[in-house]
User: What shape does this take?
Amino acid sequence: MSSKKLINRFTQLSSDSPWLIIIIFSVLGLVGIINHAMWRDELNPWLIVRDSTSFGELINNIRYEGHPVLWYFSLVVIRMIADTPVIMQIFHLSITILAVILFWLYSPFNYQQKLIFTFGYFPFYEYLLISRNYAFSLLFVFGFCAVFPSRKKTYLYLAILLGLLANSSAYALLVALSLSLTLLVEFCFDREHRQQYIHQSQRYDLFLSISIIIFAFILSILTITPPSDSYLHGGLDNGWLLQLDFQHFLRSISRLFGTYFLIVPHKRWLDLIVCSLIVIFICVLTVIRLSKKPFSVFLFITANLILLTFTYLRFAGHTRHFGHFYLVLIAALWLGRYYHESDFIINKFRITERLFMWGHKWQNIALMLILYAQLLGGIYGFARDIIIPFSASRETANYIKREKLNDEFIVASRDANMAVLSGYLNRKFYYPELQDLGSYTLFKSGRKPVEKGEILEQINGLLKNKNNKNRILLILNKKLTLKHENLQIVPIESFEKSWVDSERYYLYWVSKINN
Assistant: This one.
């Protein structure tokens, strides 16, 4: 009877009901994550949480990842519910659904814009199917925007959200810094708001809120600062770029174009120049549209400058990283709803009403073009993940289980690409890079990249040990073309259907040649 009531209630939802869209999004998201084959960046954090033997070791291992602690601590908690990576996917899905609910219920965008945004690239694919810490950015930025009016009475809610955002990722830390600076500028220069807050707030509210933000920022910075023996600097293979490089400068600006339109130019000068000019024009239009809301302009310019500076000096990033530029655009337009109009920028830069209306019109056109580009990217990414496995890891793990090979002595390389198999099979492998058993990968001293010849030499040594079996199951992420005079190598199976080309797997039996 209850199921019939639920079905009737669902069918009674109107086509323009936000809850109808949210339900459809949630169902599709569940289908997507059930189908999604996780890859190393998803399962390596899970393995760090699973196989760290103490809290101190966990913290030390996290520091090599280049990410703050929130995602890892969340995995510690949800792992108490179920010791399977699937629970991580369910948790990640819940984060994105909650973010979409906040967007539908509290954002000022019209129905068409909300609908297109919901099924765009970041909410419907990148921050939905791939279970990583970046979905927190979506949730906490939208949460910040939703509770923004509460700052008239208390900053505590915003401080907590900023603290959580700062401990989500390095890029989220920069966004949190921009939002914090916006709050500070508003408090210092908006006398009416400041007096209203002082009149309505509790005695220690401001001190407590500032303390939370400072503590959270310090914690995040300490965690993402890599140890001295981290040779990839927390996951990056380069240091700081402190010299002037105009091509790299254009490449950094074009990351904004890649964020908005999901086309990332790389080296061709013409591509970089054209894309940079287009995105600068869009930013100018956005500033003109927000010119009557000075604090939103401050947020938009400050956040983009901070992110671009980090992009230029430190890390050009990938789509999942510079998706934060897109969140800044959405947040600036969203928060503009809460501010009173001001003529400060209008008068300062002599923006006429005609120019303002022109900018508003064309920025709205640009916004719709961005939303439609995101929609196409979201549908393509989601559909591609359904058709082509993101990684061949799950298919490989299922084969190993089906053929009852999970109890064999397994040598696996490259270790960073084998962590995902360790997660699916819930066991450790012998990693030639470590010359020991392992699961997760830390790019630190003690780990040494190896060539195929060295792998075979280590296997030869392992087979001489009487404690090991007469044969070893070798798993590689690239085909083996070498031979060894003392080893018999027999191919078993290969799994090459994978979107990530470094996570295609090749299985071999390796045994001693009896002379």
Observations:
- The radius of gyration is 26 Å.
- The mean pLDDT is 92.
